[in-house]
Amino acid sequence: MASDTTGSGVEWRTVAVALAVHGLWLAVLALNGVTPWPVTVVALGLIAAWHGSLQHETIHGHPFRSRRLNALLGSLPMSLHLPYLVYRRYHRDHHDCPELTDPTEDSESFYVSAEQWESMGRFRRAFVLAHHTLLGRLVLGPPRYIAGVLVHQAREIRRGDRELARWWSAHVVFSAALVAFVVMVVGVPWWQYLLGATYLGNALTLMRSYCEHRWVEGATRSAVVRSGRFFSLLYLYNNLHHIHHADPGVAWYRLSAHADATGGCEEAAAGAGLYRGYFELARRFLVRPFDHPVHPEQRSELLA
Questions:
Q1: CA-to-CA distance for 239 and 244, rounded, in angstroms?
Q2: Alpha-carbon distance 167 to 90, whole Å?
Q3: How many domains does the chain contain in total?
Q4: Which of 24, 154, 224, 250 is the most exposed place for a label (fewest CB within 10 A)?
């Protein structure tokens, strides 16, 4: 994997994002009871998704040169569902994977194997097909993703992964403390926090990752969504996903210029895809799968 450190010293624009994320989170909590609860839920969802983008930056060596400082900056379990160190381990595995999108090798693949597909009943196949539409990813994605993480992590811990066991034990303690602060000290109802920070926050993140990887033979398997400023800032330009995968150490605020300089958008257009924004994705894939759930290299097995 390429080095995750670019430049020297502190990246102050990323520090400013971190201050904004945590400051807005505290402000939304403090204004609970003053703002209507739907506003609170939507605001928590947006901030949690932005926090996830910040965590992604810290995993790739930003804004500090110190890995520990970056981990400390990204470690608040704002959306509750996943320990930071678990995310860091599997996301780095994803970048190191030589066969992106392969469901047996890529830790972030949304494809399933032919064997998995054949073992599914009619209902599960319909569910997985729906999950490959944008609407299905937004509605069904958060509970499916969280349940999948918990099942996988429990299996790995039972197999003897003590590191995971320590990370999850600490995560449970810190998350319980965060919920106690939110509910008992600040007074935000637990269901509002879960609906906003956990469900909606994950849905927004899953919208970003919806079609960012697609199997293509002989070309890049990472797509680009050329979105406007709002979503680009929300995702810290990780929507320029091919450019990020090509040079994972480039800071978020340099990715757009880097894409122009390297021709990354043209490479994405010849591979996994180039989209003009999330409205284009909605127009094309809101209720239609962007690809069949079975990995393309294994689809021939279903026809044999």
A1: 9
A2: 13
A3: 1
A4: 154
Residue 220 lies in a domain: yes
Distance CA 172, CA 80 (A): 9
pTM over 0.85: yes
> Which among 118, 270, 278 has a CA at the least distance from the CA of 211?
278
- Cα(160)–Cα(62) distance, integer angstroms: 32
Please name the residues in contact with 304: beta carbons below 8 A apart, sequence gap of 6 or more: none
SS (H, E, C) 135-163: HHHHHCHHHHHHHHHHHHHHHHHHCCCHH
Query: Cα–Cα distance between 227 and 48 in angstroms, integer?
Result: 19
Residue 3 in any domain: the answer is no
Give how far the C-alpha of residue 192 lies from the chain's centroid of Cα atoms, to the nearest Å: 21
Q: Which domain holds residue 225?
A: 12-303
Nearest Cα neighbor of 225 from 203, 111, 289, 214 is 214
- Tokens, residue 210: 């919806």
b/e map 235-252, b = 16+ CB within 10 Å: bbbbbbbbbbbbbbbbbb
**Domain-embedded: residue 228:** yes
User: In terms of Cα–Cα distance, which of 250, 252, 211 is closest to 21?
Assistant: 252
> Cβ atoms within 10 A of the Cβ of 227, count?
22
Residue 1 maps to a domain = no
**3-state secondary structure (DSSP) of residue 213:** strand
Instruction: Say if residues 28 and 43 touch (Cβ distance below 8 Å).
Output: yes
- In the chain, the amino acid numbered 139 is V
